[in-house]
Amino acid sequence: MTLLSEVKFACLDTETTGLSAKGGGKICEIAVSVSQNGQRLEEFSTLLNPGMPMHPDVIAIHGITNEMVKNAPVFADILPRLLTLLDGCVLVAHNAEFDLSFLRTETQSCGLNWPDYPVLDTLKLARKNGCFPRNNLTAIATTLGINAAGAHRAMADVYMMEKVLYSFLHQFVRYGVDTLEELQQYQNKRHQSLVLGLSLLS
Fold first, then answer.
1. What is the separation of C-alpha 75 from the centre of its chain, rounded to a whole number of angstroms?
2. Please, which residues bridge with residue 60 across strands?
3. What is the DSSP string of 47-86?
4. More exposed terminus of the chain, fewer Cβ within 10 Å: N or C?
5. Does 94 participate in catalysis according to the annotation?
6. pTM for the whole thing?
7. Least-confidence region, from 16-30, 38-52, 134-148, 187-201
8. Which domain holds residue 172?
9. Residue 17 · residue 25 · CB < 8 Å
10. Which one-letter DSSP state was computed for residue 153?
């Protein structure tokens, strides 16, 4: 069993050119923050050149323009740095399968397989254990009193997610959840005894 205080959490977010990696979407920005026991250890963020023009509708969401990514590195350039950073970490993302689908596809395009990191999904944790009015990251953060400024840019979302994660962990510990293995169970089935979100404001 691994105590939560011993875990290195790597909160990760991507911004993309579309809604589906299988549909040809690419990553145009990635950000990671690694922390342990609430202390940030290392972070990494970069725009990426997706090798394709972005539709105006996508640009309207994240604000990343074709001009901004024109001279940015491609995913293959930053993959070694990313893998080194994530080594030994538990990966944390909000709606993790979305980000993972892009990371798997991009990594495969480099001739490698995306490693099988342990994953925590703050969306699953919120749905199974919370009572939020909505379960998107901004709504959860706002309910918890966390600043949601800059939403939809990768590092801003990572900082927000990191604060949401540790807010959740604080509540889980109060209910006797102090190992990674127990926390993983809490994201996969509903636990009626643990209520987050609006109850924190009462």
1. 18
2. none
3. E---SSPPPHHHHHHH---HHHHTTSPPHHHHHHHHHHHH
4. C
5. no
6. 0.92
7. 187-201
8. 4-201
9. yes
10. S
CATH number of the domain within which 65 lies: 3.30.420.10
Residue 111 gets the label, from left (phi > 0), alpha (psi -120 to 50) or beta, of left
d(CA 125, CA 135): 10
**40-65: pLDDT as tens digits:** 999 999 999 999 999 898 899 899 99
Which are the contacts of 111, defined by CB distance < 8 A and separation ≥ 6?
none
| Euclidean distance between CA atoms 185 and 195, whole angstroms | 15
Residue whose structure tokens are 């579309």: 18
Listing from the earlier edge strand, what are the strands of the sheet with 90-93? 39-47, 27-36, 8-16, 90-93, 119-121
CA–CA distance, 30 with 177 (Å, rounded to integer) = 31
**Residue 191, token pair as written in the block:** 């636990």
Q: What is the average pLDDT score of the chain?
A: 91
User: What's the chain's length in residues?
Assistant: 202
Whole-number pLDDT of residue 201: 38
- Rounded to whole angstroms, the maximal C-alpha distance in the chain is 51
Q: Which of 158, 189, 197, 149 is nearest to 44 (CA)?
A: 158
The two three-digit tokens of residue 112, written as one number? 């490698």
3: nearest Cα among 125, 202, 181: 181
- The total number of structural domains in the chain stands at 1
Q: Which of 55, 62, 152, 170 is catalytic?
A: 152
Residues 16 and 26 sit within 8 Å (Cβ to Cβ): yes
